[in-house]
């Protein structure tokens, strides 16, 4: 177990270094972008009937949150603040702490992503095993094709189709928001029910998004293991099917942990399309909007959060991998 | 030793690649269909723009219903939707193909080298891979789209490839790690064969099914990503493609609320679905081609 | 192994929970829709087009993207009627009445004006609010605002006196004769003194005095302080909404804002809805969706195609039209040949079929521009006499006319039909537009098609975002590009857009100075035009407009309109019209087409004026 602890510590350290690299990369990338937040808003003030002078003055006052310090100084300041958990201040929302905006949006991404992940994992893995075992039958083939198709179809295509069917055509589910606003947030059945109702389409989309991945990975893995010499040998030796299933399961589940980390990333990336399509105000929508209005601190913050989540998922996947595959454990 | 020998025979038997390919594809009708769909779209992408140079517009026939003149109706400017689908295929497919090329070259090289060597090389390469995997590709693309022009398939393909090789590298490495512990590789090492020989001759053929599968899947993913960027309206476009069509249909044509623009939305959607289906069906053949054990067991 | 099993068990439980809640949701749906409504006026659902709603944004009107909604929980002394013939015409808000005086303005507050906490609206509230306006750059000069004070822009309050009985005197800085002082003061945002005064230093009016003073150094220091204060105020997030408007913000969910009727509102008996829901949206297509499902009681202006208009009308909505003082134009950089030649611009105007372009670009919310005058159609009609209008060139589509204009300018057409520049090289146009402006992008395809068919190969190009567009346009990178003009209803603003900074004009002490090398000058029109044998200075005429009362503006506008129509610094393609919708499903008595002043305001203002009644 000390080996495990050492490995964990090493992974965490590597993760921290990675976070630092990502922070640095993000910081400089975001600052290399053209355009200032005020520029975007200037024209909209003009549209609202402000004169150019007035619009400029308003932009200067309201969007005065852009720092003019040298870039390196800004970078060091940003790192220092990050250590204290401060993600800086939004420019678009004139000085509102970024962490505040992000924490308002975060639950609406994490909740559906995790639910979708769980649903798709269970269905996908079971379907994968079935598809592998029955791969010569028609149903197995169809199952595999369904997995590949769903995995391949872009998330926005699925989301658009779901919306078209369940909202536009059948009026079954809402197309926007996270809950009925007239209900007081809390644990009341009405509110929870409303949240669930609004979350169904996003969750189903997320689940579809990664279901195919699980299915295909599991199928391919099981097929590979089935072909392995030791399975052949065990079959020839006449070992009980249960024992063989355990052999197979244990070896086949391995590659899935890389899939876990990957699909976490896929889902966060998919959140752009899914949240945009269902107007579900999570992290993806916040990031998309902040890019549109050139809100650098929010962009950097949301970006950072997504990457940290993926780093964490990677570490977990890697550790699980170690725990289960004795050959890699040293 | 025996395993190595057996494997080499299999590899050698596969030499007349075309015959093997034909056998694999024609074994099941589904594969034939998949192959046919892919060929169809490739032909469309190569030849389509020759047939329809510039799209005609007609402000008096906006969102016209399908007719003999306009097989799939018209769009917001009265342009023929069928022509748009055909013309738009080239950008979509060439971008995906280029991206897949960049991905496979980078991913396989990094994955194999890291998985085989372990130690310092592995650590360094995997940190780089982790970095590429960690940076969420799509948000990065969206941000980059404001700096770079993605007008040509080369630029878009390169960026997609650069952000997308991490998954392949990781998968290849993990397969290599597992394989590395197997008898035949240890035997090869024991025989004192050079690393390059082991990587290229022993590891690569065994990893090929995994890579091929990944690559075809990543082609689908690339199509999704590029079309998605246009769909979200984040990438400025100067000519039409499937993503532009989706964007126009949903955000300007109101296809979600009006039956008039529905065909305009569904045409590119169906193309994406069909192409995905084609690749998926074909994938089966590729899987078998590189993984002969499937055939034995089936 | 045991770890493994726990994991699986956990996952299974989670899925079961999800499945369970998913089931409960479908049964939930039936009693969700209509409940709660109808009692006591019910719920009014709409969208604030200027505010997309972000959970986490502060309930502070001075924030750039606040959860504060004009006319609902954000109040003013009065609400602008956008009356082109009288810019100082307003609906009463917190002010019941007002009279202009030599010193400034005397305002009578609504006798029952109260905040949502039950306390009365007082002079202190007005004073704090106007002081805050200074920190926001909307009342007087601030650092970085270009240091020049432009008359007609800022309202320059010097003092506020309590005359007792809810009567307030608001004084203008002596010497600053702003024509629109009344409107600017009355449309300042009024906030609660108890909530906001803590953010202001005790000597705030001393600072404001220093800014207005003649001591340059002291003015600069004071101005910097005000700017710093402005940031603090913009970022301020009050814990609770205190509103003097008809509604008070109860809660902002991630997707919607909920406002309850303010029981202390001075005209609460006029306010029919018990609650207002303002929905979040990310794009036009959602507003269309809400309406085709009948979810909105009224909608703001949204760009839409004709098929959606039909769909919305079918869903039971009534359309309202009000003028929108904006025009979509194609502008030129006259520094880039051949756009420096007037006949070239005129020829292009003859080639582009504005009707066809509008039909594709803005089929519902756009009216093909009848003339290019720098003003929208209805304003041109109002200011020009019939004779003057008859003298304008309508630039009807006319290929022959265009060809003769071009030939006259030395252009040639080759055997394949392609036009060549006087120097012999083929003429190609890149028509610049910007990502996100879907109407311009769609219209560009038609314009490009028409020009290409005429023999000038034209390709539309799209800039990634507006910030870059703005920057590159100012840097003179685009020869031909889309631009918003005719920004009214104030005519001086409309002409300032063309003959202002974008054209190298700046105003110093009432005199227009032209600089062809100014960093923001990208139009590069000449400093003077010759119209009907007369030399005119469009910059000076525009400057004169800003200090001329509307009643006396006709002669100036006649000159500017004629010059703009002849010289075409830009071609007006379509004028926007503000198309709104309402349904009488839950409420009646909505303002109809023709009630421009109301339609240009928010539904909250309609309600204050006695419109929108329970059914």
TrEMBL record, chain A:
Principal localization reads membrane
Q: Where does the record place the ABC transmembrane type-1 domain?
A: 106-317
Q: How does it sit in the membrane?
A: Multi-pass membrane protein
What name does UniProt use for this protein? ABC transporter permease
Q: Which Gene3D superfamilies match?
A: MetI-like
Endpoints of the signal sequence = none
Pfam family, any one: BPD_transp_1
> Into which family does the record put it?
Belongs to the binding-protein-dependent transport system permease family.
Name the UniProt key words of this record, in alphabetical order: Membrane, Transmembrane, Transmembrane helix, Transport
According to the record, the segments passing through the membrane are 12-33, 110-133, 145-166, 186-209, 253-274, 298-324
Q: Where in the cell is it found?
A: Cell membrane; Membrane
From TrEMBL, chain B:
Give the PROSITE patterns listed for this entry.
ABC_TM1
Query: Sorted alphabetically, which keywords does the UniProt record give?
Result: Cell membrane, Membrane, Transmembrane, Transmembrane helix, Transport
Asked if Aminoacyl-tRNA synthetase is a keyword of the record, the answer is no
* Compartments reported by the entry: Cell membrane
Q: Which domain of life is it from?
A: Bacteria
How is this protein situated with respect to the membrane?
A: Multi-pass membrane protein
Domain ABC transmembrane type-1 spans what residues? 89-283
Q: Which Pfam families match?
A: BPD_transp_1, OppC_N
**Which residues span the membrane?**
32-52, 91-116, 128-148, 154-172, 215-237, 261-283
Coiled-coil region(s):
none
Identification of the protein by name: ABC transporter permease
Q: Which organism is it from?
A: Catenulispora yoronensis
From TrEMBL, chain C:
Q: What is this protein called?
A: Solute-binding protein family 5 domain-containing protein
Q: Which UniProt keywords apply?
A: Signal, Transport
Top-level division of the source organism's lineage: Bacteria
Q: Which InterPro entries match?
A: SBP_5, SBP_5_dom
Major location (coarse): other
SUPFAM superfamilies to which the protein is assigned, alphabetical:
Periplasmic binding protein-like II
Query: Where does the Solute-binding protein family domain start and stop, copy by copy?
Result: 91-501
UniProt lists the family membership as follows: Belongs to the bacterial solute-binding protein 5 family.
Signal sequence extent: 1-24
Please give the Pfam families that the UniProt record associates with this protein. SBP_bac_5
Name its species: Catenulispora yoronensis
User: Which lineage is the organism of this entry classified under, starting from the top rank?
Assistant: Bacteria, Bacillati, Actinomycetota, Actinomycetes, Catenulisporales
Q: Which PANTHER family match?
A: PERIPLASMIC BINDING COMPONENT OF ABC TRANSPORTER (PTHR30290), PERIPLASMIC OLIGOPEPTIDE-BINDING PROTEIN-RELATED (PTHR30290:SF10)
Tell me where in or outside the cell this protein is found: Cell envelope
């Amino acid at each position: 177990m000390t080996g495990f602890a050492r490995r964990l510590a090493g992974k965490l350290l590597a993760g921290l270094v990675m976070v630092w690299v990502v922070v640095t990369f993000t910081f400089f990338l975001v600052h290399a972008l053209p355009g200032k937040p005020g520029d975007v808003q200037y024209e909209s003030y003009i549209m609202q009937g402000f004169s150019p002078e007035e619009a400029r003055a308003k932009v200067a006052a309201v969007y005065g949150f852009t720092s003019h310090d040298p870039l390196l100084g800004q970078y060091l300041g940003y790192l220092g603040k990050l250590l204290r958990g401060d993600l800086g201040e939004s420019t678009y929302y004139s000085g509102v702490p970024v962490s505040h905006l992000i924490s308002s949006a975060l639950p609406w991404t994490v909740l559906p992503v995790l639910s979708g992940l769980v649903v798709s994992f269970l269905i996908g893995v079971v379907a994968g095993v079935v598809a592998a075992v029955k791969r010569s039958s028609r149903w197995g083939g169809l199952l595999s094709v369904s997995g590949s198709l769903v995995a391949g179809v872009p998330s926005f295509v699925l989301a658009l189709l779901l919306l078209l069917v369940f909202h536009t055509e059948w009026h079954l589910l809402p197309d926007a928001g996270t809950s009925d606003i007239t209900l007081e947030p809390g644990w009341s059945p009405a509110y929870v029910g409303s949240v669930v109702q609004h979350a169904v389409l996003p969750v189903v989309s997320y689940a579809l998004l990664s279901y195919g991945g699980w299915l295909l990975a599991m199928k391919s893995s099981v097929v590979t293991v089935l072909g392995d010499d030791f399975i052949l040998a065990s079959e020839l030796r006449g070992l009980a099917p249960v024992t063989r299933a355990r052999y197979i399961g244990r070896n086949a589940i391995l590659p899935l942990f890389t899939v876990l980390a990957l699909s976490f990333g896929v889902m966060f990336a998919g959140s752009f399309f899914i949240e945009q399509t269902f107007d579900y105000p999570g992290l993806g929508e916040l990031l998309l909007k902040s890019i549109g209005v050139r809100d650098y601190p929010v962009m950097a913050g949301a970006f950072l959060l997504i990457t940290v989540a993926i780093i964490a998922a990677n570490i977990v996947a890697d550790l699980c991998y170690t725990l289960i595959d004795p050959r890699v454990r040293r | 030793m025996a395993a190595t020998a057996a494997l080499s025979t299999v590899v050698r038997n596969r030499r007349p690649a075309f015959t093997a390919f034909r056998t694999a594809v024609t074994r099941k009708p589904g594969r034939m269909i998949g192959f046919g769909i892919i060929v169809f779209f490739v032909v469309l992408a190569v030849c389509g723009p020759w047939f329809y140079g510039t799209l005609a517009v007609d402000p008096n026939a906006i969102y016209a219903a399908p007719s003999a003149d306009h097989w799939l109706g018209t769009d917001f400017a009265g342009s023929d939707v069928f022509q748009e689908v055909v013309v738009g295929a080239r950008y979509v497919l060439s971008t995906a193909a280029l991206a897949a090329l960049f991905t496979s070259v980078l991913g396989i090289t990094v994955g194999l080298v890291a998985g085989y060597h372990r130690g310092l090389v592995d650590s360094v390469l995997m940190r780089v891979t982790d970095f590429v995997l960690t940076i969420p590709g799509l948000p990065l693309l969206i941000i980059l789209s404001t700096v770079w022009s993605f007008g040509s398939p080369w630029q878009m393909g390169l960026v997609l490839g650069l952000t997308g090789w991490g998954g392949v590298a990781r998968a290849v490495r993990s397969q290599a790690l597992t394989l590395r512990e197997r008898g035949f590789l240890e035997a090869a090492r024991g025989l004192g064969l050079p690393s390059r020989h082991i990587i290229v001759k022993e590891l690569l053929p065994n990893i090929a099914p995994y890579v091929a599968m990944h690559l075809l899947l990543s082609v689908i993913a690339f199509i999704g990503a590029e079309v998605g960027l246009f769909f979200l309206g984040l990438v400025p476009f100067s000519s039409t493609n499937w993503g532009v069509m989706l964007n126009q249909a949903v955000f300007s044509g109101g296809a979600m609320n009006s039956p008039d623009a529905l065909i305009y939305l569904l045409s590119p959607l169906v193309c994406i679905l069909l192409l995905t289906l084609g690749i998926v069906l074909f994938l089966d053949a590729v899987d078998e081609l590189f993984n002969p054990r499937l055939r034995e067991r089936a | 192994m045991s770890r493994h099993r726990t994991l699986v068990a956990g996952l299974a439980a989670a899925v079961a929970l999800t499945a369970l809640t998913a089931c409960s949701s479908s049964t939930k749906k039936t009693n969700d829709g209509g409940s709660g409504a109808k009692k006591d006026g019910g719920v009014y659902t709409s969208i604030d087009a200027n505010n997309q709603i972000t959970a986490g944004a502060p309930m502070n009107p001075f924030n750039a993207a606040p959860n504060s909604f004009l006319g609902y929980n954000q109040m003013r002394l009065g609400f602008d009627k956008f009356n082109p013939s009288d810019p100082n015409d307003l609906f009463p808000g917190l002010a019941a009445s007002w009279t202009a005086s030599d010193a400034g303005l005397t305002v009578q507050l609504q006798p029952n004006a109260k905040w949502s906490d039950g306390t009365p609206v007082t002079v202190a509230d007005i004073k704090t609010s106007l002081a805050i306006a200074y920190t926001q750059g909307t009342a007087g000069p601030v650092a970085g605002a270009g240091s020049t004070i432009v008359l007609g822009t800022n309202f320059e309050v010097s003092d506020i006196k309590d005359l007792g009985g809810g009567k307030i005197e608001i004084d203008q800085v002596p010497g600053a004769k702003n024509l629109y002082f009344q409107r600017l003061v009355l449309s300042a945002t009024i906030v609660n003194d108890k909530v906001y005064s803590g953010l202001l230093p005790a000597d705030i009016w001393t600072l404001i005095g220093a800014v207005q003073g003649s001591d340059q150094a002291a003015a600069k220091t004071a101005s910097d302080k005000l700017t710093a204060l402005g940031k603090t105020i913009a970022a301020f997030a009050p814990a609770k909404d205190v509103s003097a408007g008809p509604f008070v913000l109860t809660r902002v969910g991630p997707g919607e804002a909920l406002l309850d009727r303010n029981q202390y509102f001075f005209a609460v008996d006029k306010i029919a809805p018990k609650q207002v829901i303002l929905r979040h949206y990310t794009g036009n297509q959602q507003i269309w969706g809400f309406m085709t499902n009948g979810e909105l009681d009224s909608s703001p202006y949204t760009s839409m195609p004709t098929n959606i208009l039909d769909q919305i009308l079918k869903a039971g909505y009534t359309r309202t039209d009000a003028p929108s003082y904006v025009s979509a134009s194609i502008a030129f950089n006259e520094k880039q040949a051949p756009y420096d030649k007037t006949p070239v611009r005129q020829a292009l105007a003859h080639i582009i079929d504005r009707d066809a372009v509008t039909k594709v670009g803005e089929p519902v919310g756009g009216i093909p521009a009848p003339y290019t005058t720098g003003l929208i159609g209805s304003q041109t009609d109002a200011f020009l006499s019939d004779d003057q209008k008859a003298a304008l060139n309508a630039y009807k589509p006319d290929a022959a006319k265009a060809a003769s204009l071009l030939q006259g300018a030395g252009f040639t057409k080759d055997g394949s039909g392609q036009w060549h520049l006087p120097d012999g090289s083929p003429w190609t146009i890149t028509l610049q537009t910007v990502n996100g402006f879907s109407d311009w992008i769609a219209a560009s395809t038609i314009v490009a098609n028409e020009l290409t068919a005429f023999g000038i190969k034209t390709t539309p190009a799209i800039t990634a975002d507006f910030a870059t567009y703005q920057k590159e346009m100012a840097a003179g990178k685009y020869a031909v590009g889309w631009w918003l003009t005719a920004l009214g209803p104030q005519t001086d603003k409309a002409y300032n857009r063309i003959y202002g900074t974008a054209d190298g004009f700046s105003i110093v002490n009432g005199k227009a100075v032209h600089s062809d090398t100014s960093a923001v000058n990208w139009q590069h029109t000449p400093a003077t035009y010759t119209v009907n044998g007369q030399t005119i200075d469009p910059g000076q005429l525009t400057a004169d407009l800003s200090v001329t009362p509307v009643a006396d503006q006709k002669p100036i506008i006649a000159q500017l309109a004629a010059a703009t129509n002849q010289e075409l610094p830009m071609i007006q393609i379509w004028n926007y019209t503000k198309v709104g919708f309402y349904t009488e499903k839950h409420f009646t008595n909505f303002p109809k087409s023709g009630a421009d002043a109301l339609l240009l305001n928010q539904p909250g203002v309609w309600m204050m004026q006695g419109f929108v009644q329970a059914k």
